Amino acid sequence: MRLFIGRCLWMFSLIGLWSCNERIQTRKIFRLNQVQGVETLDPAFAKNLNIMWHTNMIYNRLIEYNSRLEMVPSLAKRWHISSDRRVYTFVLRDDVFFQDNPAFEGGHGRRMIASDVVYSFNRLMDPTTASSGAWIFNDRVDPIKPFVAVNDTIFEIRLLYPFNPMMGILSMQYCSVVPHEVVEKWGSDFRAHPCGTGPFQLQDWEEGVALTYRRNPNYWEKDSLDIRLPYIDGIKVTQVDSKASEFLMFMQGKLDFMNGIDAAFKDQVLSKQGELKNDYQSKIRLQKHPYLNVEYLGILLGEGNSRSTALQNKKLRQAINYGFDRKKLITYLRNNISQPAHSGMIPIGLPGFDSNLVKGYTYQPEKAQQLIADWKKENGPLPEITLLSNDNYSDRCNFIASQLLQLGLKIRVEIMQPSLLREQMSSSQAPFFWATWIADYPDAEAFLSMFYGENTAPPNYTRFKNAQFDDLYRQVLTVSDEQERIKLYQAMDRIIIEEAPCIPLFYDEIIHFLQFRVKGWNCSSLNLPDLKRIDLK
């Protein structure tokens, strides 16, 4: 009898173990890698795309943009802007709950209310928080009472003056809503103990190794068939710091997704037309999207910039713009992934971009030579010019330098650490530099603000100051008619083209590699994928 019972228990334990293993094996875990580590999960410090991918999983904002860059309701189900465009009133959903957390009574997430939005925005502006996003409200909101909870479901933001990009700003990760109880419990260590209203919640973080997220079972959002999101059970983000290793992991099926590709494998996988080569078409998927990112060379302008004296002359800046072939650069160094920046600083995908109405610089070496000759006639022999870059972009810089050398313009490329280059750009110590600018929100103002004379660095790394441009910039902030705003944006872009404080290189594209089991992949031009709507088959 004992033997029979023992055998039964043994069989039941095997069945239980088999069932448990089956559940583990059938769980839908989306796997990706980030080469650059993430130092915080606090949205008040969501200053780069690596952090934003994580905060976008954990938190929500009042409004968001979908993959087509359409503004859609999120925590706010509707809103109203006053006739003087200074008061924004949001009606909040009443069915949104924070993720479960020990800081709440009983450990259960409580309902999100308007005072949570007030707290989150005030925290962003609080100097003791030292948020990298404090600037988004600075000198724009009422200094006495900028944020008001009228009741639990009505929230107001009050501006000093009309500022049309405000809705775009409210979609930024900085404006994620957080609960005061959890922030107060953890203090500065909230960075590693996040709590939001989003589709995924942090399960484990072994810093420098991996982050694991689990599905938020109480997430408020449903799809068009009334199925609660997200579809998958969780996400695992490894932090292997080598793009080459990441590629090998992806090809071994250990990752479901890869953002971009290591330069060493680029020509092996992609044709010069930017498509998958035949050997890979049956193994992996490639998706390309426009990316609201412009790579450019910046020139420090203004009196006192003695190290860039030659470049203070507009003719030489224009000569550089005409003097190299952007299309060839993209073909040979980028496998045709991106579009040449022939139409100013507003990239493809934004209202205001129009290659027919805004004509920038194309490759015209004869015109470049004439401008260089004019400069020499006025100033004498050309000096050697130093171009600062980090190692990731040295190939672009050296390509440009080699083409300009054929015109008699000698460019020396100096490589430095990214952090040092950013520091020199911010402190007006970089006379001529490589840079990239990614939109925080889908509005041309996000790019043109780089040249507003009242702005310091960032974003105005060139210290460009032009009275006509500044007047147009101030005007466009108060114009509500979209077509009128587009005309103003294009007029501003033409000034940038004429004055040439920078050399636009290309309008970027996103390349994503996916395993065939990933379904429903969608990503906006801000390079923020909608992971709550993907599924794994």
Reading off the top of the CATH hierarchy, the class of the largest domain is best stated as: Alpha Beta
Largest sheet: 5 strands, antiparallel
Roughly what is the average pLDDT, rounded to an integer?
Answer: 93
Got a strand count?
19
Low-confidence stretches: 1-24
The CATH architecture term of the largest domain is 3-Layer(aba) Sandwich
* Class per helix and strand makeup: alpha+beta
CATH topology of the largest domain, anyone? D-Maltodextrin-Binding Protein, domain 2
Shape label = globular
Specify the number of helices.
16
Number of domains: 2
Structural Rg? 26 Å
CATH superfamily name of the largest domain?
Periplasmic binding protein-like II
Distance between the termini: 46 Å
Helix fraction by DSSP (H/I, runs of at least 4): 25-40%
Strand content: 15-25%
Walkthrough of the structure:
The chain is an alpha+beta fold and 537 residues long. It is built from 16 helices and 19 strands. It has helices at 2-26, 49-58, 114-125, 166-170, 180-186, 243-251, 263-269, 278-281, 314-322, 326-334, 365-379, 394-405, 418-426, 445-448, 467-476, 482-499, and strands spanning 29-33, 63-65, 71-73, 76-81, 87-92, 147-151, 154-158, 200-206, 210-215, 234-238, 257-259, 285-299, 339-340, 385-389, 411-415, 432-438, 502-514, 518-519, 535-536. Strands 11, 12, 13, 16 and 17 form a five-stranded antiparallel sheet that branches. The longest helix has 25 residues, at 2-26.
